[in-house]
Amino acid sequence: xxxxxxxxxxxxxxxxxxxxxxxxxxxxxxxxxxxxxxxxxxxxxxxxxxxxxxxxxxxxxxxxxxxxxxxxxxxxxxxxxxxxxxxxxxxxxxxxxxxxxxxxxxxxxxxxxxxxxxxxxxxxxxxxxxxxxxxxxxxxxxxxxxxxxxxxxxxxxxxxxxxxxxxxxxxxxxxxxxxxxxxxxxxxxxxxxxxxxxxxxxxxxxxxxxxxxxxxxxxxxxxxxxxxxxxxxxxxxxxxxxxxxxxxxxxxxxxxxxxxxxxxxxxxxxxxxxxxxxxxxxxxxxxxxxxxxxxxxxxxxxxxxxxxxxxxxxxxxxxxxxxxxxxxxxxxxxxxxxxxxxxxxxxxxxxxxxxxxxxxxxxxxxxxxxxxxxxxxxxxxxxxxxxxxxxxxxxxxxxxxxxxxxxxxxxxxxxxxxxxxxxxxxxxxxxxxxxxxxxxxxxxxxxxxxxxxxxxxxxxxxxxxxxxxxxxxxxxxxxxxxxxxxxxxxxxxxxxxxxxxxxxxxxxxxxxxxxxxxxxxxxxxxxxxxxxxxxxxxxxxxxxxxxxxxxxxxxxxxxxxxxxxxxxxxxxxxxxxxxxxxxxxxxxxxxxxxxxx
Amino acid sequence: xxxxxxxxxxxxxxxxxxxxxxxxxxxxxxxxxxxxxxxxxxxxxxxxxxxxxxxxxxxxxxxxxxxxxxxxxxxxxxxxxxxxxxxxxxxxxxxxxxxxxxxxxxxxxxxxxxxxxxxxxxxxxxxxxxxxxxxxxxxxxxxxxxxxxxxxxxxxxxxxxxxxxxxxxxxxxxxxxxxxxxxxxxxxxxxxxxxxxxxxxxxxxxxxxxxxxxxxxxxxxxxxxxxxxxxxxxxxxxxxxxxxxxxxxxxxxxxxxxxxxxxxxxxxxxxxxxxxxxxxxxxxxxxxxxxxxxxxxxxxxxxxxxxxxxxxxxxxxxxxxxxxxxxxxxxxxxxxxxxxxxxxxxxxxxxxxxxxxxxxxxxxxxxxxxxxxxxxxxxxxxxxxxxxxxxxxxxx
Amino acid sequence: xxxxxxxxxxxxxxxxxxxxxxxxxxxxxxxxxxxxxxxxxxxxxxxxxxxxxxxxxxxxxxxxxxxxxxxxxxxxxxxxxxxxxxxxxxxxxxxxxxxxxxxxxxxxxxxxxxxxxxxxxxxxxxxxxxxxxxxxxxxxxxxxxxxxxxxxxxxxxxxxxxxxxxxxxxxxxxxxxxxxxxxxxxxxxxxxxxxxxxxxxxxxxxxxxxxxxxxxxxxxxxxxxxxxxxxxxxxxxxxxxxxxxxxxxxxxxxxxxxxxxxxxxxxxxxxxxxxxxxxxxxxxx
Lengths: 597, 396, 285
Description:
The structure holds three protein chains of three kinds. By secondary structure, chain A is α/β, with parallel strands linked by helices. Chain A folds into three domains: 23-316, ABC transporter involved in vitamin B12 uptake, BtuC (Orthogonal Bundle), CATH 1.10.3470; 334-425 and 515-595, Rossmann fold; 441-510, no CATH class. Chain A has helices at residues 2-32, 34-37, 40-65, 74-89, 98-117, 125-145, 147-150, 168-190, 193-203, 205-210, 215-241, 251-264, 270-285, 293-307, 311-315, 337-341, 388-395, 441-447, 457-461, 465-485, 500-512, 530-545, 557-563, 581-586, 588-595, and strands at residues 156-157, 243-244, 350-359, 362-372, 377-381, 403-408, 411-412, 426-428, 518-522, 549-553, 566-571, 574-579. In chain A, helix 3 packs parallel to helix 8 (168-190) and helix 3 packs across helix 13. Chain B folds into two domains: 5-151 and 298-373, Response regulator (Rossmann fold, 3-Layer(aba) Sandwich); 153-288 and 375-390, Response regulator (Rossmann fold). Helices cover 41% and strands 17% of the residues of chain B. In chain B, helix 11 packs across helix 12 (340-348). By secondary structure, chain C is mainly α. Chain C has one domain (2-121, 141-271): ABC transporter involved in vitamin B12 uptake, BtuC (Orthogonal Bundle), CATH 1.10.3470. Chains in contact: A-B, A-C, B-C. Chain B binds chain C through residues 41-43, 45-46, 177, 203-206, 208-211, 213-214, 217-218, 233-235, 246, 263, 266-267, 269, and chain C through 1, 4-5, 8, 12, 111, 115-119, 128, 204-206, 208, 210, 214, 246, 249-250, 253-255, 257-258.
């Protein structure tokens, strides 16, 4: 019966994917038929919209999915336009064929996309935004100054593509084809583990690290791809303009690209596409207002940010308007855990070995020894400020201790490398659930096993077989994990519509995706009702029985004594006592410091 | 006083109606569509705004006098906002959407560079007043005509004044970092050298730089006898003039017309700094020796006064250029009709069209219509009623 | 030559430093960086020119009105672009809302005031000398602001309250400090400082809408290099930036000077993201 239910959910998933693709296909049909009802003038506008979309589709992954505020992306359009034009015109070397020049523009765009994007790995949001603005200005200045190559202020003629793309409508179809390919590729990424990982980096980057997602690697790939398509868009732009000068690449254009994505809504493909079309076409209608267009775009951006941060995508999200059933109860099914978690744990034990961690003058953890054995639940309790969560953070690799180490089977785990814990199948949850609010529950859970996908970014880009296999595997496992925690009915609901307790169980499901050898839980019972705590208790015991070692940081004394095989008590960063629950319950100092009579 | 598309349509419609009521026989005459691509807003809009004032006046006068063979001129305007992208969009709409007979504009070189090939592809005749040399090519763009001087002509006049009239050998050439500025410096320095001058300083400076003293000190220590700035940025030019004044350095400044604009004047620290500043200008709109304007120009100034057109914040020659352009086009259409090839044929044979701004002539090989000898240098601080005196030493 | 580079460099460095302080004051009150700091600087110059030159008011009245305009824009920023997004979970919305507001004001200025630089009046009716008022006015303004802020933060109760909400908003709220009122006051104060920067620098930079993006970038460099919220660092970094920029302008020319500034900025940030004098941010988990 379980299998039947899963099958139905899967079919629903397939139907939903087709539902998402339908508007895009409809737009494509309209675009192909456009010459039949639009005149030559609207052809130019439509071509321009296609070219802008080629760039915005790539930028969408950077801004909408990865959440990086790259405002000065027009720099890459400039670079692509000049590269294509200069190479096709033969200013520096013998003239190249326009297609080759366009391809090289893509490569140049990729390289510079990486250069512009790399600071994002080190810099805070605002800093990164400013550096992209500075970069855009610099590129324009260089284009002005480097006269021997770029023609300086007088500029260079744009490339002319050979037949059949040299006529206006022929060129339109060329741009349309490239725009369609970019849409397809970015939609593939959006629906892949990379797209989900990007949203995780954007909205829950600490949790993303815990799932093993390497922010640098992923962002690098995204910047390379976005830069490449921006470069190609530049070449097409130069051809449409037939002549380029530095003053065509204004900051207004950069703002337009950026606002199109935000109007469209982050994490969506259709939204920014509609946003781009809207912003390209709008000035053509409102002729008296055209001088105010940048002002109106900025005003629109302000309104969107304040009133509707989800943008057009949120408006079109009909399925998430349907009310959820009230009085939902979480009914975990521990019996599914055996299937989910698979083989027994052979990883040995996880030891905290003499760890000392200070924040300035405050010693948060002071010479702590702790051992978590497989197939047992180890509780960690103590008053507030005793260092429980800090210990958990050291184990999961977020903090580097000044002394001591965390050892798995005797080998020290690298400190300050939280993303590597997933490789050794250590998973965790957080004190406050860290999830991607705008993604569905199922997508959130699928993020948990991102690192187990085998396909590369390019394979997902092109929807090659390994991409589909990864998706099927992740989807199946996530549905099983949701069924195990009892939330499978909410699989396609937006995560931010869930109750707090449901979010906690979702996080647990996500952590279970890694089939962890060790599961670290940070106060999972906070905010749960008594019934839910009982469910959680049985569930944790079942997890341990399957072979996983569980570390449970908790305040709920009943839960601890109910479910733990061993308990360690911390006070002021030091181990106060350790032993079985019965021993701890009667330990004099523990009762004095923490439990009370 | 910007005439938008809707206003143009409404006024043309009203005019057609009025004409129809009075003379039912010609009620069926369609208006003649003329495309217009000015930069009325955006960073480079001062030229467009000035030209627009003259152009609107001319179109109103022509239409009030009955139009062209009873057909009213319908001006279809697309503000390019100083943006080549919008200029291309606008040109596409004018040619393929509105099907205009001829296009005037764009007025900025960056926009024209993108629009000229597009209009050539759609076989639309074009008249524009941009200066960048490559913007006309009788072979490549046989339907494109320029009714203003080229950069070459402008620079040649300034260089001639410095080297031959003022007899200065050591020259400093400076511009801002815009396309126009850098292209000018690149073109004029070789021209100066071939005339035997010694270019002891050549530089492009960011117009936003608030302090130009180091640059002028450099020029001074190199022994400059004349400074030649090329920029349309009033802030930049005023800083050069102000710094020269602060240094009490007595050396002539000879260069771009904007040196004499009202905007530059407003930014001067002291009015007497404006002495010994000689911008380009155009003989027909200047006071000749004896302080007299030509009759044509005087008449034009009177017309401007009665139409209450403001000159204080712009240049007279921009308004004059705007005034001449539709009149030249209208005359072409009056003679040969509105077919593109006919208009081009007429323009190719045009000899001495009597404009207020200048006498325009074209040949099939030369589509740059402004005569060399009408480009002159004037004295900036002689500004009176929008016109200047010729610079001292100007004979012929 | 050197004297000219030094005087201009220090003067313009003070303007950058003041804009950096504007960023810092807004940051201290709300933990957000606002894109409106550069726009405030621009408004100081434009409003000063509008009131004194265009509308003919006496200089001191125009000065006060320009500062009032800055305070008003600071308040508007807090109410419209900062307060609504502080409540939201999404971390980065403030970047977008303040960017949108800054763009709106810049475009409005470009359309209504004009895209050309307009003259800025002489503040004091003194003859022009080597060390002219356009150089020492920004320096004076910077000194006044730095000393004033120092006195405010260390000697007055209100200043201590400002520091409290900057350190720990929760604790401050628990103590009963009116967090919202203090934040609004901080933004108004930042508005005054920004407008003062623009007014003092008006004779050098002129009343020009294009000063806004310029000051947004160059005014942020002192913050980045000096450390977030660190006013002393901002002053030092601002002065160094001004001198470096003028020296580079002179040595290699306008275009490459901008490239040089940008390259140094990026390199420092990549090597020390917290700034040369800043403190590392600790707890994220």
